[in-house]
Amino acid sequence: MAKIPVAVVGASGYGGVQLVRLILGHPYLELVYLGGDSSAGQEFADIYPHLGHQLHCVVEPVDAQVIARKAQVVFLSLPNGVAPGLVPDLLAQGCQVFDLSADYRFRDMQIYQTWYGIERTDGAVAAKAVYGLPELYRESLVNATLVGCPGCYPTASLLALAPLLRQGLVAWDSIVIDAKSGTSGGGRQAKTHLLLAEADNSISAYGVGRHRHRPEIEQVCGDLAGQPVKVQFTPHLVPMVRGILATVYAQVRDPGLTTEDLLLIYQAFYRGKPWVRVLPPGVYPHTKWAWGTNMCYLGLELDPHTDRVIVISAIDNLLKGQAGQAVQCLNISRGWPETTGLPQLSFYP
Amino acid sequence: MAKIPVAVVGASGYGGVQLVRLILGHPYLELVYLGGDSSAGQEFADIYPHLGHQLHCVVEPVDAQVIARKAQVVFLSLPNGVAPGLVPDLLAQGCQVFDLSADYRFRDMQIYQTWYGIERTDGAVAAKAVYGLPELYRESLVNATLVGCPGCYPTASLLALAPLLRQGLVAWDSIVIDAKSGTSGGGRQAKTHLLLAEADNSISAYGVGRHRHRPEIEQVCGDLAGQPVKVQFTPHLVPMVRGILATVYAQVRDPGLTTEDLLLIYQAFYRGKPWVRVLPPGVYPHTKWAWGTNMCYLGLELDPHTDRVIVISAIDNLLKGQAGQAVQCLNISRGWPETTGLPQLSFYP
Amino acid sequence: MAKIPVAVVGASGYGGVQLVRLILGHPYLELVYLGGDSSAGQEFADIYPHLGHQLHCVVEPVDAQVIARKAQVVFLSLPNGVAPGLVPDLLAQGCQVFDLSADYRFRDMQIYQTWYGIERTDGAVAAKAVYGLPELYRESLVNATLVGCPGCYPTASLLALAPLLRQGLVAWDSIVIDAKSGTSGGGRQAKTHLLLAEADNSISAYGVGRHRHRPEIEQVCGDLAGQPVKVQFTPHLVPMVRGILATVYAQVRDPGLTTEDLLLIYQAFYRGKPWVRVLPPGVYPHTKWAWGTNMCYLGLELDPHTDRVIVISAIDNLLKGQAGQAVQCLNISRGWPETTGLPQLSFYP
Amino acid sequence: MAKIPVAVVGASGYGGVQLVRLILGHPYLELVYLGGDSSAGQEFADIYPHLGHQLHCVVEPVDAQVIARKAQVVFLSLPNGVAPGLVPDLLAQGCQVFDLSADYRFRDMQIYQTWYGIERTDGAVAAKAVYGLPELYRESLVNATLVGCPGCYPTASLLALAPLLRQGLVAWDSIVIDAKSGTSGGGRQAKTHLLLAEADNSISAYGVGRHRHRPEIEQVCGDLAGQPVKVQFTPHLVPMVRGILATVYAQVRDPGLTTEDLLLIYQAFYRGKPWVRVLPPGVYPHTKWAWGTNMCYLGLELDPHTDRVIVISAIDNLLKGQAGQAVQCLNISRGWPETTGLPQLSFYP
């Protein structure tokens, strides 16, 4: 099979370099274009010298015409608000687009505009985008041409919640998501609070009660529950590079449920889904288990003292939470095995 | 004023070395005895060489008679279940005892035995112990002879919850405590899961639904609320040395409450309490702010989307969560200013 | 091609789990046996739950007969001194053995006994062992049946020094190796000084002037130079999980040499060696570049102020410094491409 | 005694916040002015919220007239090249100045200009500056009005080397300094390579053969040796917040010297110097021992295999390597005990 030519736009960020790494190891893909504005003109190996023996490629200024001439598949890893200036053009010229920003994740453009403060005129295009969480929207991904890949927090949170919501097992207003992220989630741009000297050996909450990922999570929760769901979402910054741990709390409707019942329900829900692993009773995931892989690990407990279920999910925020998931979506859209070119085992420790 | 002679028993652990550090810097205390069983016979400076220029002292085998002959104040920093073999003797000989283990924190010996699996025959002694959380039990600490100092998780959780419970502002069954601890909370004994190679760059939950600090927290919550309170408590291990962050969620009874209202309530509650600082609106604490100090920082938010209050507290688990708090209790018991000999400002970063 | 059955003995340590990970991803190998004494009887997935979806295997007590019945290739990842009790048997029964301990690295059993304090009676077997540093002993590895794989410090140090010594460019008595290691080099056994609470945010030297890796380095330096060479070797413990950085200093004989000259010499020396990458001028390696790969990155500088060359090498201590190198040796011994089944690109950051 | 009014200029950086912390705890000093250009107009507690309960102070634009009106002692913690625009004015108006930049460390302005690329016209002022390393230049510090405080690398390196050079014990051309620094040495400004995501779990060398601290070190080595000395200096970035470890190698002239001899020489040299502690034989310092203190710990070994002495020094780069040393210089200049207001014991771990 001839390899499919692929472009990565926004190549110098962490999403970009993960995409490059995955594409170089993917049997059906060929990297033909790296684009970026701040890094245009630079050798990619000058930005990431560890790739110098594998990749000789200059970052090009972003130009939809050039991209469409070279690539059939385009991954966009850009700041929010930039993709809408490229996507209509790319689609018109026959490209398949996987966008890693928030721009094509929302069904309701009004919600997007409220939370992101960006005017949008491409509502018709956005309406056709598929939400790229394959465990929940697999059918829509087959042959999809525009995929809005979810953020890292929603991925971890929704995989923890989905079986509960789909089966109506918990009180709709009882969901608390206490999420913890490594600092790479904040990107590669220099920001004071992400300096090692600031962020190391310290944990803190941020965006309490008003983080942008809350409406994204609620949109999908609504799909799963078949009715609006409000969630409490609190992100935290953890002194580590990669990984998200989401600790999710909800009140069960039926106090007779046990941990074993719920594990069976979760195992059934995720059967045949290679990127989610439900752990044995009493085992809760460590984010490091997922480091460098596309896995999501889930552990859970039903607490009879409080009639709450606690579900804990762990992913690598840059893979299952970003670049890996985008490749997983591509695999599904093309009919390839879902695991193609994606790492399953971490180099623990 | 003649300095008061002080003993530290269990000196080689993290609680012990913090106590040593604090006593050396305290104007009214003199360190006269270091005890420990596993380290008996060793020069303390061989265990902690960085103290070698300040302290020349051999660790002695633990013997209540010897301790009582030398010291008026005794800090016990021992594994759970050991203190009851020493405390009745020490008290009988006139010592004042500050115990850092769980042994003298529980009013109900039955609850202690259930959770710690240790038989106790010193119920009469235990009944006289004061729970050493000065912001809540200050009056009882004056002239106290036996203080059971709280654990690090309860300290952070209870300081976050106290104003809400005392004033009955939240639904009793709605409290979720998602707590995050540095690895020094696990002590200095070599355990595989606390190795840097295991714990670094990874976060995980443990003891979900069944951690021993839950009944301790519920005992004090009951005191504050004047009725039984059940809490959800989930501890996490965070890749950092020191610090606890507790993120506490509760449903407010009156949906008209605002963040500003709650901040006023908290400021009033903690007025005149030098070791708690309520942060301005929109500011949430970082654990590193408390590093090396006896401070507890509190930030909060009322989320009108869910009618939940989220309170976030940060302490240094080895100071306000352990040794510092014990010295604070001693200060109060003796009528000294509460801040005597305790550090208020971290060496940030 | 039928896959070759492989045994890993000492599977529960860090060397072992890396080997398992690599074997699971190697196209020509099949993992048929996991052995270990302390973990015998345990499900491997109970020790490393992140592997539970890929591996169902109980760790067996170590028994050379059982191993030889099941496996053709045996990796030994055991404490020093244990392998000699197994290796003669394994070889006699036709196994090919790759030993990761120090036991088969020394040509002179006297030196081994001096530094390791272990009596040896298998001198004849040891004499046939090949030193498993493929960039220097590739020819001897072809069809080798017993390979003593080098330690992580010698690998990083020798790859930095080899071109200088082979060509006689530096004064024999001028070599200083200042090496820095992550804590996983100390293994997975619980030791106080490797606790996160102790090792994090601290760097220290150890074994100054008397580390066991010095005679191992000097043995190979002697081979390269054709005469005895003494080196100064100082290891340091760095607050990170993986990686070794060796900063090597030596006085050049010809003060006319330039950085560019030396880079050409290094590039020529390592041409065709896929696991060593000589970096461009002015670029010095970061250990994280090698994380999770079998690469060795080399950067160098000739300082005209002092007429010293400074060479800096970076590897992942558990891969190129341990398990990866063992698989590289296996690949060569079997005539497979040297890169088979080994990762080349890190998941930076 | 009335407290002396003190100004800190460049207050928002790491040097600045350490100075603020130390001044707040110093019995003879009163903080009266915080200056800074990038942070002018901000409440200091908005930059460092953990200080909000102790300090209510707005950062003012830098103006020598205003400073001189308010303060008798001025600490300058500014980027290189800024101080010369302030210092002559401040001195003229009677202020005593402690400069933490490189601007007043060099006796030879030509060397400064070569390495820093900054033209200087205040040679006459610079000529009167005292190099603020109290263990070597104590007499000159008494009543000094302008002190150029040394950088963190020179402090650690020179305290390790001083006894060897003063007594002529080592070959002048044999000195290699392999130094390792935490990332706070790079300051608080946002730089990509100092992000936690980049710098964590990685160690690397930089400025190999051409770091600005080399000529500074050589100037003082020349003073000590009484003749020019060339050193090899290689700095490394270590994944930790604070601390410098310098591993120093030199060839001894007299091969009969022993470790014990050298320890005696070091103890004699540093007798009566409260901020240097020579460790017992076989003990080498960990940087964490010095964390949060003004201590320098020294360990050493004479290696009879190579006739080299290896001296290892550890300091907190922001205290003994920066702000603490400046306060130590002030103490000496005013005739106060050298330890006044400076921390001696770390909050280990």
UniProtKB/TrEMBL annotation, chains A, B, C, D:
Q: Which GO terms describe its molecular function?
A: N-acetyl-gamma-glutamyl-phosphate reductase activity; NAD binding; NADP+ binding
Q: Which BP terms does GO give this entry?
A: L-arginine biosynthetic process
Purpose: Catalyzes the NADPH-dependent reduction of N-acetyl-5-glutamyl phosphate to yield N-acetyl-L-glutamate 5-semialdehyde.
The keyword Oxidoreductase belongs to this UniProt entry's keyword annotation: yes
Q: In which pathway does it act?
A: Amino-acid biosynthesis; L-arginine biosynthesis; N(2)-acetyl-L-ornithine from L-glutamate: step 3/4
UniProt protein name: N-acetyl-gamma-glutamyl-phosphate reductase
- Catalytic activity field: N-acetyl-L-glutamate 5-semialdehyde + phosphate + NADP(+) = N-acetyl-L-glutamyl 5-phosphate + NADPH + H(+)
Q: Which UniProt keywords apply?
A: Amino-acid biosynthesis, Arginine biosynthesis, Cytoplasm, NADP, Oxidoreductase
Organism (species)? Gloeomargarita lithophora Alchichica-D10
* Gene encoding the protein: argC
Q: Which InterPro entries match?
A: AGPR, AGPR_AS, AGPR_dimerisation_dom, AGPR_type-1, NAD(P)-bd_dom_sf, Semialdehyde_DH_NAD-bd
Identify the enzyme class. Answer: oxidoreductase
Under the heading Pfam families, the entry gives: Semialdhyde_dh, Semialdhyde_dhC_1
Residues annotated as domain Semialdehyde dehydrogenase NAD-binding? 5-144
